[in-house]
């Protein structure tokens, strides 16, 4: 085994210090997320990513194969984090209206606090979902998101609180759309119409109104939302 192969196997980082593989990969993914979000898949450079990590370009190729493989893993990690956040909400133990409220609030807050996630999704749409199509993991993760809404809607309908025709997939679309636009179009919207909605007070008002709109759509008239 050559010296370079041994270095790869042991995970020796820049400067000769030994790293744990999970820590190395986490560092690479964090840097790559920022680079891909800022520059897109075609504009991001592996040399630039490597220069900002605590390891070498060779280690990046060792763990992720190539730039496309790294980009795909960045997408997977971005979706994993948002779905993990949803899992920690413990929605199944909340009344259906409160569960839906909590999910909408979380989605709005997550997207607002993670503009890189929004940019990555926009970039993937430019590529017509090519890399999401390659990832079985992303499909499984997002199926779980709709399953959570299916469970909430089912409990709400059984309690006579939710409308019988509420569709969980449509509901997911609405929550995503309202929360996504707030970040994706901030630059153009604020330049054209001003920054009022992007002040602290403006964002809090929008958050409350997004929750109200979704609940009014799902909850039958006459039931508290």
From TrEMBL:
Keywords: DNA-binding. PROSITE patterns: HTH_TETR_2. Residues 22-82 form the HTH tetR-type domain. Residues 45-64 bind DNA. InterPro entries: Homeodomain-like_sf, HTH-type_TetR-like_transc_reg, HTH_TetR, NicS_C, Tet_transcr_reg_TetR-rel_C_sf. The keyword Electron transport does not apply. This is TetR/AcrR family transcriptional regulator.
């Amino acid at each position: 085994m050559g010296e370079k192969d041994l270095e790869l196997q042991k995970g020796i980082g820049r400067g000769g210090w030994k790293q744990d593989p999970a820590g190395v990969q986490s560092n690479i993914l964090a840097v790559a997320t920022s680079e891909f979000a800022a520059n897109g898949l075609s504009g991001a450079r592996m040399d630039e990513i490597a220069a900002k990590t605590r390891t070498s370009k060779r280690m990046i190729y060792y763990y992720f194969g190539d730039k496309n493989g790294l980009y795909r893993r960045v997408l997977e990690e971005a979706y994993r984090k948002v779905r993990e956040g949803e899992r920690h909400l413990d929605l199944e133990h909340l009344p259906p209206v409160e569960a839906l409220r909590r999910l909408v609030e979380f989605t709005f807050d997550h997207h607002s606090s993670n503009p890189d996630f929004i940019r990555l999704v926009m970039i993937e749409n430019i590529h017509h979902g090519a890399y999401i199509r390659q990832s079985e993991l992303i499909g499984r993760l997002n199926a779980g998101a709709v399953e959570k809404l299916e469970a909430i809607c089912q409990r709400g309908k059984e309690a006579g609180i939710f409308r019988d025709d509420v569709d969980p997939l449509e509901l997911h679309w609405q929550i995503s759309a309202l929360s996504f636009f707030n970040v994706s179009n901030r630059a153009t919207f604020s330049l054209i119409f001003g920054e009022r909605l992007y002040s602290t007070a403006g964002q809090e008002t929008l958050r409350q109104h997004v929750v109200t709109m979704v609940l009014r759509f799902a909850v039958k008239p006459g039931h508290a939302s």
